[in-house]
Input
Amino acid sequence: MPADFRAATSSSHASGARDGFEKLTPELQAVASQRLTTAAIAYGGIWLLLFLGNYIQFIVKTGQFILPSNAWALRTLVAMLLSAAVILKTRKGIISPRNFVRAAAMFQILGALLIVQELWGWQNDLAGDLQRLGVTPSEIHTFVAGSAKNAAAVELVHPRVLLRYDGVNAVTTWLLLFPLIVPITPRRTMLLSFVSASTVPLVAGGSVLYLGSPEIVAPLVSRYLFDMVLPVYVVAMGAVFASHVVFGLTRDLSKARELGSYRLVELIGKGGMGEVWKAEHRLLARPAAVKLIRESTNGSSSDHTSEASRRFEREAQATAVLQSPHTIQVYDFGTAADGSFYYVMEYLDGLDLKTLVQKYGPLPASRVVHILIQACHSLWDAHATGLIHRDIKPANLFVGRRGQDHDFVKVLDFGLVKDVDAAAHDATQLTMEGIASGTPAFMAPEAARGYPADARADLYALGCVAYWLLTGHLVFEDRTPVAILMKHVGEAPVPPSQRAELDIPPALDQLVLDLLAKAPDDRPASADEVRQRLQAMLTKHDVPPWTREQAQRWWSVHLPDRSTPDVLPSPS
Output
């Protein structure tokens, strides 16, 4: 984005800005800033191209390499400096809504003034044309009186010819452009439009008053001055109407992006049934991530959308009751005015384990143990509460920074969570209505067969995650999901130590294989048992500990001081 309004939004509220622009979401403010930057680039570019084109034409006609007019070159330079100032102002990183509106106002008024100054002077050009055709002042007076006999005079003094020189068309275009670029209130637009429109009589009247006009066109100047000025003010009124429409639509869009106490800022993820937005609290400085589902998604049937809404509601409610610090925290949830179901969760700084391995390769055993211990803490809490996650996979385990702690794990996306005591009929209904019960590459054999699954299915999936972290490979790979599921059901996994580039201690290698046992009874009985075995590896020095200093060093080298954290809750 060309401008960042995050640091300035709260101050603009406090200052009581009256133009309404500060009431828009930061995302919409940034879009307006981008449009203003583009307009400034186009404005400066057009001035430069016209200057170079006319100068080249002058050289071709005269054979001289001198400037035909110093004022002409000066106006071009001023126009380009004005454009550069606006570009720098809107792209420098942090700008308050009030200062943005001031920059736009300066650009509109000064831009119009330069246009009129450049294009005014038609009376001198017209006087030269009339004199070359032999038109006399008396014939011009006759034309003004309404009975011209000289066809050349009639053609040259036709209003279309005058409008070609007076710059009214260019200024009116300029006036109509701004309400589309800067969504501010009609009242502010009226002020800016009428000040900009007044540059026409200011320049034209000042030119006639202080510089005069050639005698041959003096009657035309006095007659058409009013005719030239009136259209500009008419268009200024039209700009106010355009502002009323554009600002109203933009304000409505901004309101549509407000959910409860939160304002949506930026779309950061989108899936088949939901979206994840970066958001900010209206009163608090705390950032958040908002996950939502619309009542109608991509033409989905009402039954499908309704089930997706129920899944989102289950996810919010299930996550909210969990106490582990390694489970993503839910702040709020509810239904928006447009029927969207949403919930608000903490904003995370880091990346998921799928991305971590894809970008940086397999992890050392000490770091894998450090991550798995924290994941077990979240799963033990969920299982003790009577919930099964059912979709443990690298993309749903997030590792990042939390204050001074690095490699802090968060378990995400409890959208497929199931109560251990839920009726089999309910589970069957979920499958029939198209809600997947897991990801094939991480699905336990009993789940792949459609049998009832308990908490040990999550432990199998955790073993698949450990395999991925240690080797950079899936436990089983094939071309289709069905083929992968069949391998989970009937094929023994290759020990991770045989596929890894880094050394894997035997105790950790065996734990992963135990987690990947086909029969649930052959796996560890609980997430806490897995945690104890991992802790024992550290105590017996089978695996060296992953220290805080090592974690801090890794983050400082690979992801130092990121000002825009990733937020990767699955939008599914």
